[in-house]
Amino acid sequence: MYAGESSVSGSGGNHNAIPYDYSDKKADSGKVPKFNGDLEEFSWWKTNFYSYVMGLDEELWDILEDGVGDLNLDGEGVVVDRKKHTPAQKKMYKKHHKIKGSLVLAIPRVEYMKMSNKSTAKAMFVSLYANYEGIKKVRDATTLMLVHQYELFKMKDDESIEEMYSRCQTLVSGLQILKKSYVASDHVRKILRSLLARWRPKVTAIEEAKDLNILSVEDLVSSLKVHEISLNEHDPSKKNNLLLYHPKESHQKLLKL
Fold this sequence. Notes:
The chain is mainly alpha-helical. The protein has two domains: 26-134, no CATH class; 159-256, no CATH class. It is built from twelve helices and no strands. It has helices spanning 25-29, 42-56, 58-66, 87-106, 109-114, 121-151, 161-177, 184-194, 200-209, 217-233, 236-245, 248-256. The termini are far apart.
């Protein structure tokens, strides 16, 4: 079974605040737990659907898990040669029809249309389970990979602040899409830890002068870019690169601005 059975028996409290007749089981039978198609809600829905079905008839859940045995059904789940069936087979078909109907009511139409095999409740449930649990496993694996990359993130030797920040943002965006997010102060500390050794004096200065819990990532990156200009001015290799990057004509245009 996919989930533990939860107790729905009455407990203490002010029942007058909820005008509902808990003895009326027929009222519950029509309230099929609805699945909204949200991956994050699938596990919760599955547990509620299990409790709902078990409350109706535990044999219905057995049919959902084990199938219909030797019943001969067509592609739409309609029994073939119904008149030839034994009383036990007719009972099985009736129960199967009930659990399949409950499942159809529980899922969005778009999910139903995705299923290639709709002949039995078991086939439908297996398809739904494999789809959402499979997506979840892929997403969880991707999340672990991105978290690992984020934790090991370091600035490259030949990388500018802008390039480093762009790579960091790509990782952060991927994590946000997968609903694995960090707060701004996490990113601030990650960027500071990722900087090369020549940035250590600047990192120390920032840590001493700023409250990292309220410092924005944008302000940090802007400060680092300003300091980067100073570092490059004292680095011969960087100076040469800047001269090659800014030809005389471009420099003259800048002077006119």
